Amino acid sequence: MGMEEEAIDAVEALFRQQITEWGTARDNYAKLSQVKVREFTVHGSRVMVQCNPERLRSSAARVDKAAISHRECFLCKANRPVEQRVMEWGDYEIIVNPYPIFAKHFTIPTRKHKAQRIVSRIGDMMRLALLMQGYTVFYNGPSCGASAPDHCHFQAGIGGFMPIEAEIASAARNEVAREGREARLSASKVHGCNVMVIDATTIDGCCKLFDCLYRALPQSDDIEEPMMNVLCWRTGEQGVAVVVIPRSKHRPDCYYAEGEAKLLISPASVDLGGVVIASRKEDFERITAEDIAAIFSEVCITDAEVAGIIEKIKNKTTN
Fold it and tell me: What is the pTM of this model?
């Protein structure tokens, strides 16, 4: 048995141990099998809405600096539940997420308390996706759905659950740049969201194209890094697909509305991946395909912004 097989076996063993011995995890994974799901078609793509009240702590989380400074970091080892076990992986720890969206859902925080940043960790994300075959690894930017923007972490869930994984395989692509035969960067669109896709067979090739994309993304002075969500999964023996969803906004206007106009939807990677999480029953029952399309349009970047990103990348790679 190779190292990758041993590692994924250890991950699966950790999950079995936790849902056997940790009551909170066991109960919430049992509840997950009973959650209601509605299915919609948005811009020709399949989108699901999951009614998941246990995710309210995430969707309603205050992530401003004042709120962060007045609470303990729940990803730091000292503040975790005593029942939560760990699988060490380099500078990271793999732990079972006790408030799941997926049938198997992990969080992978850094051992040390460091701010949520992707720029130097895309290689780690690719390695993790290669290690956790059968899972999709994802990253929520500090202003794009991360409920712990003060502690760097990835998450991973069972592959094939989010519609974006199948949609992206057949979606039209506009090639933007290449790194030899190792990696290709393309622009695409899924359920109305503009996305950038890196198909890579080497970590080095993936990192070079991601760095090029990162530098071309719009960034304002008052945010920590370009706004984005990132999803990554293994393709073939050593390949990965990295889907970057550039953002223009953290939460849609309906999140802050009053009365019937209010939808407490706070989009992160999973939502933009085609599984919208409704933590309130009334939102789950009222939301429409038009609402979903409007939310995606509001928080994702425009066609004109994509054109500007592509122009910056092509000018850099051809000069």
Answer: 0.95
